[in-house]
Every structure is written in C-alpha cells, then in structure tokens.
C-alpha cells in the first residue's frame, strides 16, 4: 500500500464492503508512501496516526494509478519527493483551489509554514495543495479559509456573482460592539470599503473604493468628475466589513467624519508610494480624498461560546 498526500484512506465494513469511515492523508512517515499515515477523519476532523489493516484501501483522488502501481520499487530522498509532487503526468499543474490559496497567502504576506500552522496542517500538505490539482475536504477548506481570512466559496471560486451571507445563521449567535481601537485594527491597513456620499442632485449614493488607512485617516483615490469626488469637503460615512459564509460570522466598522481633498504635492506623493494597490476600477484616478473619523463604531457576530 502506497499513498500520496491528499489521497483518501477508506475503511470498509468487513461484512458489507461499504465504507465505514474515510479521511484525508495529511502526513507521510516514509518517503515511499508506505504506512503509517497521519489521517484527518472526515467525521471528526481529528488527525490520528493510522496503521491501515486489511479492511482499508487508498483512494487516489488525482489520477487513476495503473494496475500494480503499489508494487513499484520504493524510492527515497529527493527522487521520492519529486515523484510524489509531479506524478506520472509530468510537471506540477496546480488546480484552481491551489492557485487561489497561493494567491491569497502571498497577498497576506504569509509563508507556507505560517499558513499551515494557522490551518493546523502539514506544510508539505499545503505545498501539495498549492502545486497539484488537489481535491481537499470541506473541513480542510474551512480551516484554510479561516487561516487566510477569506471564505470557502472564495477558495472554490464560487459565489463571485452572489452577495455574501447566504448561509444559515448560527444556532446561538453573539452580537457585540467593538471598541474604537478594535475598529482601527480592523480598518488597517487597506482593502475595499464603501463610502456614502450625497451626489450633486442631492441623492444618496454608496460606492465601493480601494482604501488605505494612514495615520488614523481613511484615504482613497478617485477621479475629479466621479461620484466619490463629491465626498470632498463634506461629512461622510465610510463602512468596511468582512463576512465569513463558511462560519456564518463576521464584522463591520462604520467611520463618520469630514472628508477633504489632499492637495499638498508631497502628501500626495507619499500616499501614492505607500498605496498597496491601484484602484481596481482602473482609469485616471489621481485625486486623493482623506476622511478623518470623528466617530468609530463596529460590531462583530460570533458563536455565543467565543
């Protein structure tokens, strides 16, 4: 019996042959893929060391293995690592989930070791997910999403055209107010928020913008003739939030205060240098608007036992 990281270990009933239990192999103890294995069970999400018996078999999720593959001569060292990571189909070919995990991890400045620690998995297994077209379990995706501050739907690439928050509410939710310092922590350092302004014809508008949080001020770039340019020299509201569909929890922060156009050339140059990204909407957006919050409020929804 030989396995790769990400394969499933299936335990069958001796009487019926039906699967009684299955889990994801998240750790190998031998270079040639022979037992024992670290298995994360799908029914409990616990990881245990398993010495498979005669009622167990390996389900290879990535590709069909030819007959007798398990009897292939063992390999060791770097050759075994290359064989495990590339497989018979050639060079590494990461799947969509692996690409999204890698992009989100790099975006947050996390190493594989840091991410694996947060997600309670082996760094080798995380490397496998990022480098091969893996099919991780839902439990694994939930832990990865939590570690990366995103959602399972985002890692799967689903729900892009749907509003967040379509999952069921928690059985016993807890809604609590956030302190101003907690609000500042959640605002920093940058991201996408929504600015509420009154347009030229007096109607309200709410527009998403890429923002930065610099010296306790919320700043964003816009075009002089845009809707958000109307925020300058008025009092506005700015909101940012995060919704975790997988865990049915999240938070929101609301900042209210005067907005002004940043006109000092040195200040504009410094903001442009410190910006984490250009506006997603593209185009010429060289007008910087700064909001200095005079009131910061926020709320967070978590399970009642947290």
Question: Globular, elongated, flat, extended or rod-shaped: what is the shape?
Answer: elongated
In terms of structural class, how would the helical and strand content be classed? Answer: alpha+beta
Mean pLDDT: 81
- Supply the number of helical segments: 8
The neighbouring-strand order within the major sheet is 7-8-9-12-11-10
What is the H/E order? EEEEEHHHHHHEHEEEEEHEE
The oligomeric state is single chain
Q: What integer value in Å does the Rg equal?
A: 25 Å
Task: Calculate the terminal CA-CA distance, rounded to whole Å.
Answer: 42 Å
Poorly predicted sequence stretches spanning 5 or more consecutive residues = 62-92
Approximately how much beta-strand content do the residues carry?
A: 25-35%
Quick one: how many beta strands?
A: 13
Helical residue percent?
10-25%
Largest sheet: 6 strands, antiparallel, barrel
Task: Provide a short characterization of the protein structure.
By secondary structure, this protein is α+β, with helices and mostly antiparallel strands.
